[in-house]
Amino acid sequence: MAGVEEVEVVVAHQERATLRVGDVFLKIDADRTRADVEVEAMAIAPIPTPEVLWRKPPVLALAALPGTALGRLGEPSTASSAAWAAAGAAARTLHDAPPPPWPGRSLDEVASRLDGECAWLVANGVLPAGVVTRNRRVAEAALRPWTPVFTHGDLQVTHVFADGDEITGVIDWSEAGPGDALFDLATLTLGHEERLGDVVAGYGTDVDLDVIRAWWSLRSLRAVRWLIEHGFDPWPEVAVLNSRL
Description:
The protein is of the alpha+beta class. It has helices spanning 32-44, 81-96, 107-123, 129-139, 181-189, 196-203, 209-229, 235-243, and strands at residues 8-12, 16-21, 24-29, 52-56, 59-63, 68-69, 149-151, 160-163, 166-170, 177-179.
């Protein structure tokens, strides 16, 4: 890293921080278990991931991926339809692999947290009760038994990198574990509904679009409080919730 002129703060909050120094990303995480999951998930994932350069807890050094992120939540994506389809194909490859050996979130855990977040949003006047009630009703379709697959757990567009029409890798695996395949597809297309057809085409199998839309509402309802408490603006998630009306 000799000759580096600046350090870029990619993200920083109370739980973790990510810095970019030249072509190296330094992830600093207070939760060693979360970092352990990330390293192990990248080691067994059947799709491209960043190279682990070194690890000295609480710091994990990763090589930068070529290309750029598919997009950002709340902004139009300039990535090609083929790149989005390739992201769907990468998700299918991941989901076809054996799930990781550690436990994932249960349906009861997901439902309980959702109810708690909805109650908090209304009690604190963060969102109108009608918006919360409507989205809670939509989210109900996601609360059904699923066959656990190898999920990334946070497959948002900023975590998927492409160079032209090719996916070059996926970052941020700390939430990986057995879970619902449609949650990954919903996370990838959250706020980019117009790209859902491309992703499903690349995924290569029939999916329940109503369940994906349900996960859009569920994920957004769960995210708003966390974003506020960690100093982020939740307006993209709020926009998704308002769009369900």
